[in-house]
Amino acid sequence: MTVKDPLVGKIFGGYRITERIAHGGMAAVYRGVDRRLGRDVAIKLVLGGKQFSDVFLKRFRREIRTLGGLIHPNIVPLLDFGSIHGVPYLVMPFVGGGTLQDDITKGKVWNWYDAAQLLIPIAKALSYAHSKGIIHRDVKPGNILITDRGDPMLSDFGLMKMLKLEQSADLTGDGMVGTPDYMSPEQWVGEVVPQTDMYALGIVFYIMVTGHLPYEAKTAPEIMFKHISESHIRPRKYTPDLPLEVELFIEKALKKDSKKRFASMEEFVFELQRICEAVRLREHINNSRSMSKQPAAFRKVKWMDFKVRLRSLPVWVWAGGVFFLLSLIIVFAIFMVSQNFIGLQNQLATAQATQRASLLDPVGVGTLEQVSQESTKIARSTIRQVEAGSDSTPTVEATEDIDVFSVGSSQVSEMDGMKLMYVPEGIFMMGGLEENRDVQDDEKPQHEVYLDAFWMDQTEVSIEMYQKCVEDGVCSEPSRIDSQSRGFYYGNEEYLNYPVVNVNWYQSSEYCYWAGRRLPTEAEWEKAAASFEENSNYPWGNRLDCSLANYYQSASGCVGDTVAVDALPNGASYYGVLGAAGNVWEWVSDWYSDDYYVISPYENPMGPDIGAYNVIRGGAFDYEAKRLRITNRGLGGPGNSNFDGGFRCAMDASSP
Length: 656
What we know:
Blueprint: E1 11-12, E2 15-23, E3 27-34, E4 40-46, H1 54-67, E5 80-84, E6 87-93, H2 100-105, H3 112-131, E7 144-146, E8 152-154, H4 159-166, H5 185-188, H6 194-210, H7 220-229, H8 235-238, H9 244-253, H10 265-292, H11 296-311, H12 315-360, E9 376-388, E10 391-404, E11 410-412, E12 419-423, E13 426-430, E14 447-451, E15 454-457, H13 463-471, H14 505-514, H15 522-528, E16 585-591, H16 596-599, E17 614-617, E18 634-636, E19 645-647, E20 650-652
Parallel strand pairs: 16-19
Antiparallel strand pairs: 1-2, 2-3, 3-4, 4-6, 5-6, 7-8, 9-10, 11-12, 12-15, 13-14, 15-20, 16-17, 17-18
């Protein structure tokens, strides 16, 4: 909207002002035309309520020259600067898509993922500026411009610093400059660090996903008190479906102590990108699994809704439907009678073929010997009658092979070379027995669980396997290259067949997705680790020594560090899974809740919807025997990694 202004239509330096775009306490922004090049520009006049001093103008020019060196795709570049009658001005490209504040003013609330994708480029721009020693000091929606293509750009670098140099009065008092709603606690007392910009960007993220500011008050002193002393309302109070990881991310950016925020904007960007990838991955996995098996309660609601709709149909529709169903029944009956007749003919032909075959091969050579231990191939056959004079000779044609798997069946992944063991569908008892003194409260009550068939990695993912994902550019390297006692572990050829460690939940999820699999659910992990003997403590039974598992024994432990993923074949579970007890803790997909077993569904449980920690299973080389039990549950923050933490993957049996 065009605002009347005495400067509109005037010549200002080499520019003609065409309209006023915005006006604030410290600057006015005009749209103009470069008289030499004929291009649209934005002209910002720095306002001070009085003519600026010569000292300020000299500092202004020096600061502007520094800012002119900022060249980044998401920073609005500086085209020109100068002063007229003691009023300094800046010239920048005209960005025609408005500002982020325009959408916020209209009441827009963003999906968290869309908000993150818009702010990540701004965070990268800030990281770049910080590497040049420049802190913005006034990050806010009004300074985030949107191009016609929807790309965000950050403007007004250094303006706040220049105004502070002049020591002009502003909304927050002498010597302190900024926009109160977005100012960090340290900024209110005149200190700025790179995390000052991080705090402000965290508030921008907060308002985008909630529609509210974290602190609201009528006066600047009231806002200052809240930023420094009060807790804000957590984002999920406004947006309940906001993923917990996103809320925790925002909370960290808004820590009152700048040292407790992210160490740098680079880390801010890294963590936000990782959350985006991991949460979207988990949502994809959950959606794909729930599409094939909706909860019974959901199906019941849908059926009730369908019945209500049926009652509302007119009578003629009911009559037509009944007639149609009767017709189908009659056709089906005729079809079944004909099929029974054909079936009798086929049985007769098969009997004749068998009789002739037995005369040719009376001892049955080449039958049972062809059955693989890994999987059994069954050929669907058709019998074809071939007329030859008066004789009818049946022949068998194989038309399709179907895999029939059982316990002990396996397959090898083409992606990473992992051997996967088959775990058939069925019911098992999950959780620990009440009378077992080692069983913790979060392992109770023991309860029946039904699982669909699935495949489980036979071993923990090795360093060699993980390196393939890193080389493909999908996975990031572990947080450290050493292990508990080895200074050079990850990347050392001596340990290629050892479990990858120092990887967090997000990295583990990324790997499994790359490999065409996923992290197992907690229920899948426990069933795959089960022993042939019911209620055994360990995958092989109840006896325990270092030939069966790598764990902490007496004062030293079996090894004191990891061993190869297939080093202990005697410790295999009933389903042929190795290393489920000891060596390294293993991430599973579920969030942790200490009382989840009380409400866990009977069929294919997938864990709580939200949580602060993920479940880890199996114990590790530095943990005592009771933590190796099949039913024992551990927990870890999804962003945490350690010397004793690894993972394995799983896959639906229906997956290719």
